[in-house]
Design brief:
Blueprint lengths: L1 E6 L8 E7 L2 E3 L5 H6 L10 E4 L6 H13 L19 H6 L5 E4 L8 H5 L3 E6 L2 H14 L9 H10 L7 H14 L5 E5 H6 L1 H12 L5 H10 L2 H9 L29 H14 L12
Parallel strand pairs: 4-5, 4-6, 6-7
Antiparallel strand pairs: 1-2, 2-3
The structure holds adenosine-3'-5'-diphosphate.
Length: about 290
Amino acid sequence: MTEINLRSDKRDDESHLRVLEVDGYHLPPFVKEEHFRSMKTWKARNDDIILSAYPKAGTHWLWEVLSLLVRRKAERIPEKKDTAMIEELTEEKFNSMAAPRVLNTHLDFQYLPKDLFAKRCKIVYILRNPKDIAVSYYNHHKKLLMYEFDGPWDNYFQRFMQGNVDYGSWFDYTLEMERFKEKNPDYPIHVMYYEDMKENSIKEIGKLAKFLEVDVGDELIRNIDNLCQFDKMKQEKNAGENVSAWRDNNPGMYRKGEVGDWKNWFTVAQNEMFDSIYQQKMANTTSNIRFLL
Ligand code: A3P
């Protein structure tokens, strides 16, 4: 595995993003090649749950909701999402996790333990308006020092559109997930949208509980929802964060938590370019991305 400084294809863009490259696939710098290559043979359990998303779609939020739902308790857990992030784990850690494991990942499915699919482990997949994802990912890359990234938004926008970021292009990721669903129409996969969660999280958590077949009443759903509201999570989950990993010692995982922040960042030209590329690449999409909120 080579550690590389991923340049953007834009001619005058001098910025770089520190990532790891394995056979042409770009990963965040914390991934270890040895574990990444070995994970395909890791053993799954029937009750494993996989939370899957392109980065910045709301993984932390959903992971917290899922973790409380499977415990059937509206009590803050000290664990952070990263402790169950497949690409951050060793096989030993993976095997030692308490059941039921609420795993999470941004990896393409081809890299994940094969046994997860053989055992038909439930998948929860969350999507978000890619314009908001681009802005959120920009701030993520800029604030997390391990990426050594310090470029302006204008260049980053091009980089994002080209997929010159860890986990590659949002377009490719999303289309690949659509292919998986088409090829496996009976696979237990529950699709969610960040915007729906923002609009009516209680309703969405109720649907999620049904999918997971966890028997929770309305009051517990309300309490879990309440505990997972942005401000509460920001305050409580940020406590104990390794502040030195962040620019200005200021943890930024819980940034704004809003729908439509892209409007504060995209220029008119960027928006037009985005729409035109989106229309080309996603002409036959089966996802229901909501752009209008
Ligand atoms: P913003 O950068 O737009 O604020 P991920 O967890 O996949 O990395 O996604 C991070 C995004 O989800 C960030 O978006 C973050 O603020 C937002 N987020 C995290 N927790 C949230 C919550 N409880 N409610 C709403 N948004 C949340």
